[in-house]
Amino acid sequence: MVQFIHPAHSVEITSRGINKDISVDADIINVGATATRQITYSITEGNDDGFFKINNEGVIQLAKSLAQGRTSIYTLVVTATITGDDAEEKTATITIAINNDNASIAISLTNSSIAIGVAIGDVVGTLSATNIDGNLSSTRVS
Questions:
Q1: Cross-strand partners of 40
Q2: Which among 10, 39, 51, 96 has most CB atoms closer than 10 A?
Q3: Please, are residues 78 and 43 in contact by the beta-carbon 8 Å criterion?
Q4: Residue environment code for 55-80, b if the CB has 16+ CB neighbours within 10 A, otherwise e
């Protein structure tokens, strides 16, 4: 019988938050299972961009840098399989949230001066900030 180490994996979604700048090959979460025979692990869904891998012990690791990743949440389905006469397969759903902790590197304001007599609440410019990923945030300033 295959049994995941964390009982919640067979029923619920388990979540883990990681920073976007973690190293390739860093361990993210152990979803290992126990059985009386050898278990093979695979990520069967949610890894279309190949950012994650799973080792022989059931540890999900980072396969390549998340620097160019445009998704902030990945939902992976991990399958643990034992083979033989009584082959069995179990799945666990793991959600990995990417913490984008990149600070803004370019900040701009569309106006450098405000005209006399502008009414309170009138928009006087747009403040924009771009981080290293190229993500743009903007706020209207009044």
A1: 81
A2: 96
A3: yes
A4: eeebebbbbeebeeeeeeebebebbb
